Amino acid sequence: MPGTKDTSETPVPVAAELVDDTSKPSERRGDERRFRRYTVVVLTFGLLTAAAVSAWLPFEGDASQWWIGPVLALSFLLAEQLGINVDVRSGISWTISFTEIPLVIGFFVAPFEVVLAAHLVAGISTLVVRRVSGRVLYNAGAFLLEITSAFAVAGAVQRIMGATEMTWPAALAGTLTAPLASTLLALAAVRVLRRRMRIGTALRLTVRILVVGFVNASVGLSGYLVIAGSTHAWPLVVAVFLGLSALYWAYSDLLREQRDMEALSDVSLMVARSGQQAAARPASRVDDLVGGVDVSEWATIAERIKDQLAAARVVLRLRLEATAPMRTVVAGEPLPGVDRNGDDALVRLPGAHVRHFRITEANPDVAAALLDRGVQEALVVPLRSANQLLGVVEAHDRLSRWRGFGKYDVQLLGTMASHLATSLDNRRLLATLRHDAYHDPLTGLLNRPGFRQVAREPLSNRMDAAVVRVDLDVFSTVSDALGYTWADRMVIAAGRRIRDALGPDVPLARLEGASFAALVVGCQETEIHDVAERLRAQLSAPYPVDRLTVEANAMVGYATPAAEGGGEELDVDGLLQRADVAVRATRGGEEVRGYVPSMGQIFLRRFQMVTQFRQALEEGQISVHYQPKVSLPSKQVLGVEALVRWQHPEFGRLDPDEFVPAVEAAGLIGVLTGFVLEQSLIRVRKWMDEGLRIAAAVNLSVRNLADTDFPAKVVEALRKFDVPPELLTFELTESGVMADPQKALPILRELHALGIVLAVDDFGTGYSSLAYLRQLPVDEVKIDKSFVLGMGTDLGDLAVVRSIVELGHSLGLTVVAEGVEEDIARDQLEAMGCDVAQGYLISRPLPEDRLEAWLQARTARSVSRQTEAVLTLLT
Questions:
Q1: pTM of the prediction?
Q2: Residue 668 structural domain
Q3: Key word Transmembrane present in the record (predicted)?
Q4: d(C-alpha 397, C-alpha 392), whole Å
Q5: Is the same domain home to 65 and 212?
Q6: Which tens digit of pLDDT belongs to each residue from 159-191?
Q7: End-to-end CA distance of the chain, in Å?
Q8: In a domain, 414, yes or no
């Protein structure tokens, strides 16, 4: 066409500023039907108007000038081949050509029918050569309307001017009408296909085409008039024409560079957006999108490359996994026959540069590969990263150029391939990182976050689902005995057993250590219990470890959304927590338990205690009681042990064995120890002000012995209340010290160096030995009350107590006996030489006010006995 022409083979023309085509296949088929109807309308109207103009402007030719028709057709054909393609995004290709020049000359040298025939022959021949078979009828109709409208306008202007022959204003007006008509037809096609184009874009496009048409028509018209007036002026006209051609070609190169940069930017943005979409997908699809790439997303990228290169077909072959075969994405014509998917000479290319193959110049292997694809030429470039083949890009048979693919196409495809290789490599790296974030590195199963993502959707849609939690109880034992390598092997074997028992489609996760979780759907509660029993039986079978056979025991708990009767919606974390509660509730021979609401009360109670602990301190719910310690045999009060108590407004009096472990697990033991220490030092300071030297003993936790700042805090507290360090005793358990002796021992030595008394509590139940006592900087040992309570009935306990007393004295330590509740026990301890007694026989733990009353009463009794002794001596 003069000025512009649709040379696209895709059914959806979309201009540079149109929205992306995301229509469904059904919508595209509807677009095709509408465009076919539009083609019939254009072709019919073109034939009717051509017949009308032919009747209005009858043929007046001379047989001796028969050669004008072929010359005009050749001129139109040459003008088409020298055209400049303006490829608009994703669909339509408008060509700015020199066809206005032969058209404007045709007004003066040939009648309407000759010019129309010449233009039809040249235009349709060009389309056939370029293999644009899908738009021949539409373009034929457009050709008819272009020439018909041009001659109609020229004839009208000629009649208005009253001229009998063609004048240059009439020829110029007619020539400009042709590109205008073609542009309006193309814009109407965009409208028919229900694609949006901004009005500003359409106006700018129309103005530019008219400007180019006016320049071409002016040059052609001026050249014809100059040559007609002076036959010797044709060299000047040729020079002007060559100059204009050079200008157009320079503009064409600039325009191509701009289009190539836009296409490169588009492809990069498409890859980036698809990467963002892949990152935003639920983790449940990570295993489906191997390599982090959804192949359907690359179809749009392939389509964009095809449009930019004006190729009949673009093929992307992508290796989404290092060991997986390539997957193929095709844009344009389908691949004919059997695609050998990379097992041919075109795909097995060395290097990473673009190769240009033509069937007439190729070796037999390459020629066979081209024939398999049904193409005459191809551009092929591998996608490589660090010598690893990620994929291959192929572009087949250029449509928009007479000469086929050129150097600009090679450069553009090479740059695009480089961007694609980098993007694909980054996507694979991102997919690997994402896979690692949602999977356990040891077993390859899901981890906790991955399980949470995978299970979220099934749990939200159905009630016949359950979260099953499995714990192996030999993991730590195997780790301690054989090392973590063998323990890890057991975990891997356990994961395989669970996978074999549940099947490959059940979401399965390793939570931590030897704990697993699975999501079972489509089962009633009785069936889930059977599944849990089967799991326990399989996991409890012996595990071969090297040359050993390790006996294992598995505990299984499960929870369902229906556990609360459907009245409460639970997320994955809630069901995991309840399944964990069920596991903790397993006892003895009952290794499989389903969650029931009553199980959660104890954990809810612990949760409330932890969350309300600081408030309880501030409100005075937590207090310190003191249990006196007296020397044997003098019965003098030497000190007290500070024991914490909590009077909860809802739960009543809480036992320390219940809330102290919860506080310690929550990381609040430092706060509790600081509170008890401060209250004890306040009490010691009061006694000192009253002239009494009574020491206070405070229990330490494992976490206190791991706090490197703890000695400094103690020093600050002693200084604050002006209490000498020898009136402060810290009691610690053997297991607390031996949990991490490398951290505990330096802190204990630092406390001992301050002059603080250190006592080993519950001695005899842990790692008690002479070597153990020798390495600890302690001053006292406290015999565990279980031995003291049993002395009267168990000779073994009596022997243990006697041995501890002798061992402590041999090391120069003070020996304290806990749990003294009977006179006989006190007498036995006194006979053994035990130094200090503590227990209910002396006093229960007392609050501060009752302790004061107890001390006053004891002091009064002591004074009374002393007075009685003096009177006895006097008499």
A1: 0.46
A2: 621-862
A3: yes
A4: 17
A5: yes
A6: 888 877 788 888 888 888 888 888 888 888 777
A7: 147
A8: yes
